[in-house]
Amino acid sequence: MARLLQDPSKFHPSEWDTANRMQRASTESQKSRSECMTAESWRLLDEIEKTTQKTQSDVNKKIEQRREEIKFWKQELDSKLEQIVHETELLLTFKNRLERALESCKEPLVIAQKCLLYRQRRVGIDLVHDEVEQELVKEAEVLQGIIALLGHTLEQTNEQIRRNRSSKYNLEMDLKDKFTALTIDDYCASLTNDTPGIIYADNARKLEGNFVSPENWIDFSNKNVEKADKQRNNSLALRALIDGILSQTANNMRKQCEMVNIAFRNRVKEVKDAKHKLETLLAMVMDETASQEKNIAALKKAITDKEGPVKVAQTRLEARNHRPNVELCYDTVHCSLMSEVQEITKNIQRQDALAQAETELKGLSRRQLSLEEEINVKENTLYIDEVLCMQMRESVYINNF
After folding, report:
1. Does a structural domain hold residue 206?
2. Domain that holds residue 288
3. How confident is the model at residue 401 (pLDDT cuts 50, 70, 90)?
4. Where is the composition biased (Polar residues) (predicted)?
5. Would residue 20 count as lying in a domain?
6. Is pLDDT larger for residue 59 or for residue 354?
7. Which of 2, 35, 220, 234 has the fewest CB atoms below 10 angstroms from its CB?
8. Distance of alpha carbon 219 from alpha carbon 401, whole angstroms
9. Rounded to whole angstroms, what are the CA distances from 158 to 108, 163, 283?
10. The pLDDT value given to residue 316
11. How big is the CA angle at 234 (ends 233 and 240), to the nearest 5 degrees?
């Protein structure tokens, strides 16, 4: 009990002072460190704020620059798309011209071939490889060559239209992506620190997907533009080629068609002239035949008329040859009778002209038949050339394609 009532150990006053000084020193040191930390924190906060603002400002500028780049390329792509669409529409009109031209060549070719076929029906000497046939064959060859050329050009045109549409598709896809990217960057440009709905997206920093470099991005659109320009230039050159081909082929067709028509007109004139001459000869032959028939009739009558006198003279001679003895005298009567018989016989013998006349008549008949056959040949040729062919060719009219 006495131990419990004893005073505890007391500190010396100097220790008390020392302890107080240490508390003040420690507190002041802590306060100083805290003030330094606070000052450093404010400095750091200010630096971070400025850095953040600067970085965000730089990002905003870059977003704006990016938007301008996208707008520039979008305008370029829009311009090239408009050009290639317009060029494709023009090329489609040229394709239609080619198709119409190709269709227009079919009827003239069929007519030329029909004319050649019809002219095979000519007969005799008129089945000749004349100028008309030569020009018809040339016309058929020209038309077949034109059809082949137009067909090949139409294939080229279809292929160029396909390429134009391919370029158009690439431009449209690029424009669609540009529009989407611009819409996204417009949204990004509109965002501020106070915009509602902004969220943390820690995974957004991960580079996932097929990211490309800015150079590749530019190169992609630039290639689409260059391809569109190339196809547009090819299309322009093809349209110029088509225009030249259509103009030249139409001229060639018209020229050859006229050459055939001229040859037909000349040939018809020649055949008509020949037919007219044959008809003139036929008329002469028929006149001569009539004359020869009259001549034969006269010869026959003359022979008939001499039968009586010759019989009388010969009967008299026969009777006087039976005079007896010395009466069988070569008197003037006998001499005259001899002369009469000789004369009549000689005249009858001269009637061999009848046989010759009949031979000539047969020759005239054969000539008449030959001329009539030849005239029929000419009429057949005229029917083929003038009626079948020339009238059929009147429907051929070659317009500018």
Report:
1. no
2. 283-395
3. low
4. 20-29
5. no
6. 59
7. 2
8. 42
9. 25, 9, 67
10. 75
11. 90
